[in-house]
Amino acid sequence: MADNRRLGLLLVLTGAALAVWSFGDREADDRHEVSDKISVLQLDTSAGNVTVEVSDDPVTKIHEKRSFWLIKRGSGYEVDGETLRLDGDCGWNCESDFVVTVPRGTKVTGEAGSGDTVIRGVAGVDAKTRSGDVKISDVAGSVTLDATSGTIELDGIKGALDVEVNSGSVTGRSLTGGAVKASTTSGDIDLELDEANSVTAKGTSGDIEITVPTGNYQVDTDVTSGQVDSEIGSTTGATHRLDARTTSGDITIKKD
Predict the structure, then answer these.
(1) Statement: residue 19 has pLDDT above 80
(2) Whole-prediction pTM value?
C-alpha cells in the first residue's frame, strides 16, 4: 500500500512539473527596421536558422521568430556604427530564427552556431558555422567559410572562394572571378568553374570532381586509395593550377 501511495505521489508530481514546464513555453514573432546605414552584418547566433537577403532599400529589415521559456530576453540584435550584430544569445532554452534583409553591398561576417544558414546576394562573406547546412549564392565578392559540419552549397560566387569543412560535402557552381580553395575531412568536393582560375581541392575521405573551361592548366593530383581520371593535360608554366588531393576517393577533372 505504501508503495502505491509513493507511486501515486510521484505521478502527481511528474504531471505537475510537466504542466508547469509546458505553461512556460512561449513563442514570439517580431519584425524590426533599422534606418541607420548598415554595411556589415555580423552573425553571433548560438541556435537557430539564419537567412540573409538583399534589396535596394536602404532600410534593413529583421524578422525574428523566437521560441523561449517564460521570459523573453534581449532584442535579438544591436547596431554599432555601420555594423548590425545578430544576437542569438536570448537566454536559457531559447532559439531564434532570423530572416534579415540588408541593403545591397552589405558584407556578412561572424559566426553562426547550430542551424541552417542561407546567404544570397551580398557583397562578400567571411564567416564560420558550427553545425548545419550552408547555402551561399550570388555573391559579388569573395567568400571565406569555415564550417564544422554540414553540407555546403555555393552558387554564383564572383570572387575568390576559400571554404573549409570538417565533416560534410562541398558543392560549387558558376564560380568566377578568383582562385578556388575547398577542403573537407569527410565528404565529397564538386566544383564547376565558369571561367579559368586556379583550384585547390583537398580531401581525406571522399571524391573530388573539378570541371573547368577549356584552357591550359598545370595539373597536380595525388590519391592514396582511388583512381584519377583527367580530361585536362598538364601544361608546364600555365597561369592556372589545378591541385587535387585525397587520401581515399576518386579524382575526376573534366572540361566544360
Answers:
(1) no
(2) 0.88
